Amino acid sequence: MKKLLLSLGVVALLSSCAEPESDTYTGRVLEFQLYKSSDYEFQGTLSVKEKIGGTLEMGIDLSGPSATVDYQFPAHLHFGTYELADAPIAYLLTPIDAKTLESVTEIGKLSDGSALDFEGMKTFEGHVKIHLANDGPDYQVILVAGNIGPSAQLGFNKDQMAVCGNSY
Question: What start and end residues bound the annotated signal peptide (predicted)?
Fold first, then answer.
């Protein structure tokens, strides 16, 4: 009985130390669709959450076949729409874990030195692309892509997508 009470006490203590989501986020969220962009069966969602203090957190959740081995899909936030050839990378996002098909990135300063806040994110003309590999021929394979900001309302046409460069 003492062990049970001690165990419950430890669980309660650990639970109270965890930071509740309401203490981390303001509750403001934007969501953008990520569309299938190759022969691979992936699609997903990009969620942008405003954290208390004004920083942004981008979460990517993919649906599709998960891996059984350790592998990561590189993800980039780009300036401009996905039709723009060699669109500069605005921010390197945390790679997507191929087992969980998830990634979370806290956004810092963009490659041009600017910073994004929640209101700026609403008007940011950009897109996200997730590649099959970091380099080599598989870098040219885009698993999912989608415009963010006002251009997200334009829909998606895979045939108009440009393969992005890896420049900043």
Answer: 1-18
CA angle 38, 42, 44 (to 5 degrees): 120
Domain of residue 105, residue span: 21-160
Residue 57 CB coordination number (10 Å): 16
The model carries a pTM of: 0.84
Number of helices and strands in the chain (H, E): 2, 8
The C-alpha atoms of residue 51 and residue 140 are separated, in whole angstroms, by: 33
78 domain residue, yes or no = yes
Query: Residue 23 — very low, low, confident or very high, per pLDDT cuts 50/70/90?
Result: confident
For residue 9, the Cα-to-chain-centroid distance in whole angstroms is: 37
101 vs 42: CA distance, rounded Å: 10
pLDDT of 67 > 70? The answer is: yes
In a domain, 16, yes or no: no
CATH number reported for the structural domain that contains residue 61 in this entry: 2.60.40
